[in-house]
Fold this protein.
Amino acid sequence: MKTPVVILNFKTYLEASGEKALDLAKSLESAADETGITMVAAPQACDIYRIKEETSIPVLSQHIDAITPGSHTGSTLFEALVDNGIDGSLINHSEKRLTLADIQSVNQKLHDEELISCICTNNVETSVAAACFNPDIVAIEPPQLIGTGVSVSQAEPEIVEGTVSKVKEINPDVKVLCGAGISTGEDMRAAIDLGAEGVLLASGIVKAENPKKALVDLVSKL
Ligand code: G3P
């Protein structure tokens, strides 16, 4: 994946669900075409197929359960997501934590199919643990800043720098992204200046009056 990268987590916002998820994915596609920056959608599982059918952007699942096919009502099955066209998945988002064993298992499934794995972490120590699984991406997101509009790259630069330096010591090929509170071009510029290779964000774009303009502004200082 070409960096810098912007991964937009649609979460379960109404503004990013169903028909509106498709509109948002098209905004990502058009902002990517206009700016040349890689933009990736992470919609709810139910919206993945439609977005894959109607856009050309990479699509990640927000979550995968560490299960095998069979009797697991209500779970999100890796094989079904693959069949619906995912390019990869977030793992262990702070709103959907997994056990260490499950993180390893899901990361391995993605690796075996040559799909993108993005393990979310909450501090430098968990980022180090995540890097040991050799995912494609570690995304550091302090949970206390999520959804606040207070950017991790400006409010807690040391956690981004610390993650970059420790993760790269373990495996320089693992890309480090940061997220939480990021919404402006200054926030993204600060993230890149701290050594991050992109951002994982949600509310600043999902809730913007004009998401495409917000995306173009986000990468305008790169
Ligand atoms: O996965 C992205 C995320 O948790 C950050 O959310 O709303 O602070 O950009 P937000």
In short: The first strand starts at residue 5 and ends at 9. The CA atoms of residues 93 and 120 lie 5 Å apart. The pocket of SN-glycerol-3-phosphate is lined by residues 9, 93, 141, 146-147, 179-182, 200-204 (CB under 6 Å). Residues 19-35 form the longest helix (17 residues).
